[in-house]
Amino acid sequence: MNPEATTKTTYRLPIGPIHPALKEPVAFEFEIDGERIVDVDVSLGHIHRSIEWAGMRRNPIQNLYLAERICGICSYCHPMAFALAVERAAGIEVPERADYLRVIQAELERICSHLLWAGVAAHEIGFDSVLFLTWQIREKALDLTEYLTGNRVTKAITMIGGVRRDITKDMHPMIHETMNYFKDNFEKLRHVYLDDKTFKMRSQGVGILTKEDALKLCACGPTTRASGIKKDVRLDQPYFAFGDLDFDYVTPDVLTGEVNGDVYDRIIVRLLEVKQSIELIEQCLDQMPKGDIVSEPKIAKLLATLKKAKGEGIGRMEAPRGEVFHYVKLDGNEYPYCWKVRAPTYSNILPWMPMLRGEQIADIPIVAASTDPCMSCTNRVAIVDTDKKYELNKEELHRLSVEKTRRLMK
Amino acid sequence: MTKQLTPEEIVKSFKDEFKTKIKDTRIEKHIAGTKKNELIHIWMNVDRSVFKNVVKHLMTLEEYPHLAVTSGYDMGKTIKLVYHFSIYFGVRYREISLNITVELPKPNPTIETITDLIPGALITEQEKQEMLGIKVKGIPKDKRVFISDDFPKGIYPWRRDEAGPEKMIRNLHEVKK
Amino acid sequence: MAKGLSKSFKKALWVYHCNTGSCNGCDIEIIAALCPRYDVERFGIKLVGSPRHADALLITGPVTRQMEKKVKRIYEQMPDPKAVICVGNCGNTGDVFYESYNLVGPIDNIIPVDVHVIGCPPRPEAIINAVAKAWVKLETLEAK
Question: Of A248, A375, A392, C131, whose CB count within 10 A is highest?
Fold first, then answer.
């Protein structure tokens, strides 16, 4: 391609994890040839709030609350992975009951997040009513979260050495009732997403990520499982109580028998994971052992132990979007010496490049949304693809995507 | 799938290959759950001159190692980078985390890129360049990732010396009098 | 609904949302306000895609350096009379991000704010209450 003959195109595409009205500007520069994308380039950067720097000035317990606000949707995974890292660095043991309680909360968050994503994906294709249907089902999950922890979004249930609240026997009926509600509605969701002709036309064969590309670019989470790779931190390196539970990797061939690595496969993987989460929660409720919920209930004593601790630790967790990774180095001071956060979208941005090559412009929203990007976790990504330069904003891209759906429906 | 080695064999294969350039190795075993399954973390300190060969040797153990991220911190006279790899994913209970620390002297903080071996390392290498002021030789795209272009050059947020961000800090609770 | 709101609304309130670097917690609750459980659309409130059509601005997040100019531009593009609603603790005081090298301060350092909603994140009911208060203010402004 002759660089002087072509002109540069910049698309300002805000891709928020939710409604397109969310302005998380992701600047795309595409090189286009007619309607098809020839090359994509990536660049990052707008929600940088200097969290890791601030973490070096606060003690580990204050950092838990800071970690929670890295991202509102994965607001359970970040403090949990941080707690895992600190526990391993300082040598704190977690009681068994706390491990099971942590699993229940993690799987509940996974259900909320996947339902949120399903609504967003439907909106990007153009079906607003499916967005409302999915989010209405999600409200039940949020009600359960509020019943168990006290808040809908930022739960603050993590503590280094365990959890802060217990799930007693009298809470079980409410949990079972919500799980039954999900089981009843699962078939409805599956029918809408997987059997509908227009969904299939928009998502099959679009945004393909090959197995080799996914391995080389170190993708993680449902994005990579949809390409057929078995990578799941809950099974590879079991933390909490996942080593005791009975489940397996979720890849698209469980349902359809073949793996294509396109957007349709990612929808399949996420819906199957919702079903898997329901089963895991029920297994946990049956098998929960008795005991303490936290290894050191008095926070002042815990802080005194942490002040003297020296060591480094890593904490890895399977968030709804992929692998969350935290590294903490303690060196006998009140504040950690180093704290590194790596959110799953960090690794899932580079795969956008091979996924978007050869696609039409109208497919950009659904392909980018299919990796479930959470920009506030990543501090934004911009995809730069060189060529003609003109501005297209998010609304226009969304409009193009919806128009394509209407065309296909005829 | 290549044959899976035990953690002790993995450490031994690195030590046999690189002899004195590998120091301070340790194997940590953590337990989880009621069945007490083990999680294995291997840590090792590697000399800068053999770093790229170490990564190539790692790729003989696992064809596509998973690089999670690289952490970095300022130790006063040197800068330490920790590369967090993990291998043997795909089979339950088998994954092993491998953390490779490299120390760079502050007057000359350079290191070779590994994006030709593992393309997924691009963003994390760019981040270390702008946050710690190191130079990655051979990086395909040299540009800022998280910090905006109008942030002054020469200020590196994670440094604890005079190149740190002290001048740029703002307290949002301040009230103008 | 808030006191002072007339029984027949003169027009539907159109709202534009802007995220200046928040964690998305507040943004999820804003979208949840549109969903059938809380359903603000029955009052005629809807989210629009461009600031030029909007009457009220919902803004979240502590403002990062990169977003400062964009926020000012959005505020200028909105036609008068307009109301600005700052949702969440980050925009009001900074919350946990009170000290940073990349943030330029609470939102009222940059644009004038009419209604503050506190909470981390505030519940959808609180957001709807805030939009109703902004509506009252707009109606009184228009009456002048």
Answer: A375
